[in-house]
Amino acid sequence: MTPTRSPAKQRSRLDRERLSGVVDIGSNTVRMVIYGGPPRAPVTVWNEKVAARLGRDLATTGSIPKEASDDALGALARYRVILDELEVADVQTVATAAAREADNGGEFLDKVRALGLDPRLLSGEEEAVTSAWGAIGAFPGAEGVVADLGGGSLELVSIAQGTWHHGESLPLGTLRLPSLRMNKGFARRVKKAFGKVGWAQAHPGPLYMVGGTWRALAQYAMHSCKYPLTDPQAFELAPDEALRLCARLARSKPEKLMRVPGISPMRAGYLSDAAALLRVMIEQFEPDRLVFSSWGIREGLLYARLDDLQRAKDPLLVGIADFARMYEAQITDATLVAGWTADVATGEGNGTERLRLAAALLCMALQRVEPNLRANHATEWSLDKRWIGIDAADRAMLCASLLGSLGRTEMPKELRRLASDAALRTGTGWGLAIRLARRLGASSRGSIGNSSLRRTNKELVLRLSESHAALAHYPLTKDLEVLADWLGLDSRIETGEV
């Protein structure tokens, strides 16, 4: 008799088959990230790092110091055990500037191989391009210049039309900046280095900021202005705002910066130098804005090997569909609900249909949560969870939709900092319409298929087939009236062929 696996064990096995690991041997940190979830919207399952600072002596001795090497190898040996324990077969290991430039870098990588890892030494251009792929994956359709600040180098890459066009690696990493700033003429020396990337100055659009130190800078900016969101992904700064921020950081001490949530002691020590570098970058390249990315070289490694079909998928919908599946909410059912409510949403602007579908899917997942937890989850899922392919205004509309689906029309005041009143009103209307679809008949396919919701100039009309006419009773009638009132319409229920 062949033994059968329980659904839980089978799911666990399938999840392990989807795991991918990236070991990033950087000049500043040695990090391992294990990803699960769909390829187009990977989810972090495990993430840890050690600040070995392999590149700290590149500017002086030109070597990786023994203490740093031992620290890194100890961490890598630990990572190898964890990868084996979790049965992660798909592992990419890459090494960047420190191993590339140190005179004992080859010897160090031999020791890494002895641990059972297979490191690939990236050239400067490969490092730059891989970071660019991460930004391209995080911001579909992005056009601008990616600026990835690591410990040993600064990568600058132009991106447009879903690919990269120019790339350069410059020796301006956070571990090198202090020595550059010790003497006068820091800005002049940095501008001279930027002479290699004249294309960046001519490239229109934003700077896409990649790397942990830039994210720490974003955390400082968000904390300073009491920004409602916690994730720096897609956070934006205008150039003049960034320059004022750089001026403040130049006067700030690491001990004070460490108290800001999201800024580690290590990053706090780098921020003053990074701010000095950023000031020159803004003056030299004149970007129209700064956009911060949580995706970088590690996610770029995953995105670069996707085929065109996978890359074309919407990361927001892919990610939310995978998340909602844990709550037994399916995108096919959400599509039916979004279609059923489409007439209510007409005239609300282009590009919102994907967001409305995302809202429908999250609203359906939210109903699988205990009632007393739903309001908190509505704000956490929309505002705090890391979604890709969404900006702050989109998050606010999602939040308004989820709260609307709970019958709430009073919005938290912080949402008004993220989106216009009109956008929030639209999002709330989506939520009220999704609530009506659920009230109709538990969002069942039969109730959806035997009814229609139509908006006229004066009325919101719910039409039911004869077979489902009995659904036209309280509390359905109440929710129909609430939605109609929100839209400034009268409401009516009729029976007939659908």
From TrEMBL:
GO terms for molecular function: pyrophosphatase activity. This is Ppx/GppA family phosphatase. PANTHER family: EXOPOLYPHOSPHATASE, RETROGRADE REGULATION PROTEIN 2. It comes from Qipengyuania oceanensis. InterPro entries: ATPase_NBD, GppA/Ppx_hydrolase, Ppx_GppA_N. Residues 43-307 form the Ppx/GppA phosphatase N-terminal domain. Pfam families: Ppx-GppA.
